[in-house]
Amino acid sequence: MAETDNGAPPRALLIVAAVLAVVFAGGVAYFGLRGSTAEPEGDTAPLPLVSVPAPQAGSADCAKLVGGLPADLTSNGKKLSRRELAEPAPAATVAWGTEAVVLRCGLDKPSELTQTAQLRTINGAQWLPIESDGVSTWYLVDRSVYVALTIPRSAGTGPLQSISDAVVAALPPQPLKF
After folding, report:
1. Burial class (CB within 10 angstroms; exposed 0-12, middle 13-18, buried 19+) of 162
2. For 105, which of 75, 92, 173, 176 could close a Cys bridge (C-beta 3.0–4.6 Å)?
3. Burial (0-12, 13-18, 19+ Cβ within 10 Å), 26
């Protein structure tokens, strides 16, 4: 590489280096922005869920609750859209988001529901929280049907609050059954 009389690289080499830097930065910006607007891959495919015993899933109360659920939930400021379920889809089951928030209606009474269970009241609905690896499952225990809402720990409290509002609007409270 030839140097000028003052020890600096030739002007042509500086121009080429500057042009390459601008082209590289432009490419990174283009591909970065293009990737950020794409839909997450898992959000567009139907979500496969296994069936669990839900003897009341076909009840009028589950139909009323599921019919009143929101199309979107808010989780940590992000919108979670309702997901299509893969066939055969479990009855009275709804899911939202890529890391799915899943609601199942019409389940059997949870065995953890005892007179000493620590219940939480969220927006007028009583829930029994059960923690497991990376998710929390909240069982609605004060309505005519049992409902399970499984939420990834990363989701925050927004989905639980929105579902509680839908429950209160759709189903009247019932005495607890231990």
Report:
1. buried
2. 92
3. exposed
Number of domains in the chain: 2
d(CA 25, CA 126): 53
Q: Residue 136: helix, strand or coil by DSSP? A: strand
Q: Which domain holds residue 140?
A: 45-170
In this prediction the pTM is: 0.76
Residue 176 included in any domain: no
Q: How far apart are CA 128 and CA 35, in angstroms?
A: 40
**Shared domain check, 78 and 34:** no
% the chain with pLDDT above 90: 73
Give a yes or no: residue 86 inside a domain. yes
